[in-house]
Amino acid sequence: MATIAFIGLGNMGGPMASNLLKAGHDLTVFDLSEDAVRTLVDEGAKSAASVQEAAAAAECVITMLPAGHHVETVYLGDNGLLASIPSTTMVLDSSTIAPETARKVAEAAVEKGIAFMDTPVSGGVGGAKAGTLTFICGGEPEAFEKAKPILEGMGKNIFHAGPHGAGQVAKICNNMLLAILMSGTSEALALGVKNGLDPAVLSEIMKQSSGGNWALNVYNPWPGVMEGAPASRDYQGGFLVNLMNKDLGLALDNAVKNQAAVPMGSLARNLFQLHASQGNGTLDFSSIQRFYYQDKH
Ligand code: NAD
Q1: What is the mean pLDDT of residues 140-157?
Q2: Which among 19, 243, 286 is the best mutation to test ligand 1's pocket, defined by most ligand atoms within 8 Å of the CB?
């Protein structure tokens, strides 16, 4: 079992840290929120007064922070962790951030002989709680093999996408596709219903036909079609429209930098941005269904 510093105990980081404790790891935690820290301490973690103190004796540091600038603040600069931790510490950043930010932190780590990997996740808060997250890793193969047993305490599928930054690239590609699939599925369902079809019957038909996809299989956006899906609880919980917008923003920025054409991704970004601006930012992203069919819901 490893001695781990876990930094960022929010909606995702809290349950992930909790699962590492359950797996038997020795955890020291830090978050700006005292409440978040207290919850983990109640479960058996040690608390620290700063990121530096949390990481001081750790074999592995894991961060789960909101965005790239938080990650840069924690790792880089004179007060950053990379300036104080020993070169034997392994660093895993599971936040969703721009690939170039991940590469910047990785370069600074490599200069100090520290193994760094970007390890963003897919699976949402439900996956974080259940310990079934997918980890998408970017970094050296040796670091990947070393990190795998730790990540297995929080996830079910652990992928090595390639070198530093590749985990973040794969993550934003996946979420751009997810946004496109969810918009397209909602659009098709709305068209069918406007023609008098039952959304449950149409969903089943498309599921078994060439339009079948993840949204239809496990995350149907039409209210009442799928028990347990966010659509059936007024789009509460799940993966927020605001977070989808963050990821689509990362995908589009990346496309500009790489001169990649992403017309479907751009359209999805505009749809979700408009949807957020209409007061839906804190609903689950499958609420994009309401954009296509408002008169009934
Ligand atoms: P969150 O806002 O719930 O949690 C972030 C936590 O980081 C907060 O508790 C905050 O206090 C803490 N924090 C911020 N700056 C800090 C600092 N300098 N030092 C210590 N703690 C600090 O966010 P979340 O939903 O847990 O998401 C975390 C990351 O995971 C994001 O990058 C997000 O894009 C990604 N992600 C989220 C989901 C999801 O469904 N929520 C799914 C996949 C990936």
Answers
A1: 97
A2: 243
